[in-house]
Amino acid sequence: MIFAGLTLLAVGAVDLVRQFVPRMRRGWVFAAGFVALLVLSAAVDALIFGMAAGAIAAVWHLSMPSAGGGRAGFWPVAGVGLVSVVSVMGFGARAEGGPWGRLWQLETPAGPASLDLVVLVVGVGIFLLESANVVVRAGLRSENAALGSTQDGSARDGVLRGGRLIGPLERILVVALALAGAYTLIAAVFAAKGIVRFPEISRDTAHGNRAEYFLVGSLLSWVLALASAFLVWWAYRTAL
Fold first, then answer.
1. pLDDT digit string (tens) for 191-230?
2. In the chain, what are the domain boundaries?
3. CB-based contacts of 78: which residues, under 8 Å, 6+ apart?
4. Which residues contact 64 (CB under 8 A, 6 or more apart)?
5. Residue 111's beta-bridge partner residues?
6. pLDDT one-digit tens code per residue, 127-148
7. Which of left, alpha, beta for 73 (phi over 0: left; psi -120 to 50: alpha)?
8. How many of the other CB atoms lie within 10 Å of CB of 107?
9. How far apart are CA 213 and CA 209, in angstroms?
10. What are the distances in angstroms from CA 98 to CA 40, 41, 101, 114?
């Protein structure tokens, strides 16, 4: 479980740096972030996992450009997902968590939460903020490429404005509702998004692809959120 948390945390941090830190300063920030990751992983007795998570984040940075998918396609996404699933389902929570783990005590309404579980939840949250946007944009660019080069440019990242902010908020909300078992409210969120976007979608272009663009982006975002909720739920169940 701790490997999944550190990996998602490292990958999510990489994309946040790429989004908000000027290019000239990223090298120093990446270096400082890697040192912080090693310190954190050492404190929870997972230094090897921290080094591996840093390596995975470096591969993600090279293969998944922030502006869209790279030549590797969706393989980096599949790789991060596989690492997370195997780490949670194959290993679960550890009995010992290093210096911090021995001092860690957190009671929640659902029972005690282990340090490994908290690291996973934080990693999932950081990943959903910007890395999920990178995945969605990669999917939309793949869809644009499939539509052909004759497109007039309407189905681009800027068509449905606000997605960069709405997406992370929506995914965090869906994860929270899913973990709370409020499935009816999740359906309401999905329906509300369609209703709010309907006027803009109805003013479709001559190519008739705006609705498809909206559906592809929304479904990718929802799948990421629900998969993240399932990962956290499974991690909690295995930690009991």
1. 887 787 777 666 665 555 667 777 777 888 889 999 999 9
2. 2-239
3. none
4. 70, 72, 76, 77, 134, 135, 138
5. 108
6. 999 999 888 888 777 666 554 5
7. left
8. 8
9. 6
10. 10, 9, 5, 12
Tell me the pLDDT band of 180, cut-offs 50, 70 and 90: confident
Amino acid at site 220:
L
Distance, CA of 63 to CA of 53 (rounded, Å): 15
Residue 161, token pair as written in the block:
């404005």
Residue-averaged pLDDT of the chain: 81
**Long-range contacts at 225-230 (CB < 8 A, ≥ 24 apart):** 225/128, 225/132, 225/170, 225/171, 225/172, 225/174, 225/175, 225/178, 226/174, 226/178, 227/81, 228/124, 228/127, 228/128, 228/171, 228/175, 229/174, 229/175, 229/178, 229/179, 230/178
What pTM does this model have?
0.82
List pLDDT tens digits, range 5-44: 999 999 999 999 999 999 999 999 999 999 999 999 998 8
Return all residues near 32 (Cβ < 8 A) that are at least 6 apart.
Answer: none
Q: How far apart are CA 39 and CA 47, in angstroms?
A: 8
Which residue, 22, 24, 21, 26, is CA-closest to 58?
26
